[in-house]
């Protein structure tokens, strides 16, 4: 099963996970990352690298974030691949503890 990026990543966008991905399966949006389920090889290398614990095996995505399984697949189809780490968003440190961020997720690709 592929891995999925869930809600804790919204408006944080730490990219530590990107640096360890052996197959470049991360896609970048304006304020969120997703994993392309067709590219992910299920290695799990990204999971311990995420400082906000936003990455889950598809079978282990918490129920409140189940919609992110489909959202990763849909957004991955149109967002650009990110292959190198970047600085997190300016507000990342304050946003990482915020809950219920779905309404803040931009579905626009990174520019």
């Amino acid at each position: 099963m592929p891995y999925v990026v869930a809600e804790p990543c919204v408006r944080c966008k730490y990219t530590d996970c990107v640096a360890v991905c052996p197959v470049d399966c991360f896609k970048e949006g304006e304020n969120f990352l997703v994993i392309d389920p067709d590219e992910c090889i299920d290695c799990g290398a990204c999971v311990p690298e995420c400082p906000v614990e936003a990455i889950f095996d598809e079978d282990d995505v918490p129920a409140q974030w189940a919609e992110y399984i489909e959202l990763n697949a849909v957004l991955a189809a149109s967002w650009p691949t990110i292959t190198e780490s970047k600085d997190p968003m300016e507000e990342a440190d304050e946003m990482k503890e915020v809950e219920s961020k779905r309404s803040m997720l931009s579905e626009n690709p990174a520019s």
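The helical segments are 16-20, 67-76, 92-95. The mean pLDDT is 97.
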